[in-house]
Amino acid sequence: MYGLSSQDSGYRGEVVERLGLPFDMLSDPRLRLAGMLRLPTFTAGGRRLFRRLTLVVRDGVIEHVFPPVFPPDAHAGQVPTWRRENPL
Hints:
- The protein is an alpha+beta fold and 88 residues long.
- The chain has two domains: 1-50, no CATH class; 52-88.
- It is 33% helix and 31% strand.
- The protein contains four helices and six strands.
């Protein structure tokens, strides 16, 4: 599992450490994935950022997309449920 951020790699490392995330984050400051996959974004403080969403990727193929989620804490339970219902 990885997080994806439009922030640079310095920010990525800091946020993983500060929040004690149980996964690493990937940086895409040019939002290339947003363009290639038509991922939703928004602008805040003059910066274009990814909307929160979850992609399930198996063997390099996007198998499922959870649309932008709000609030994130409510979404946390949906992913394990989906994984149980869709085993490897």
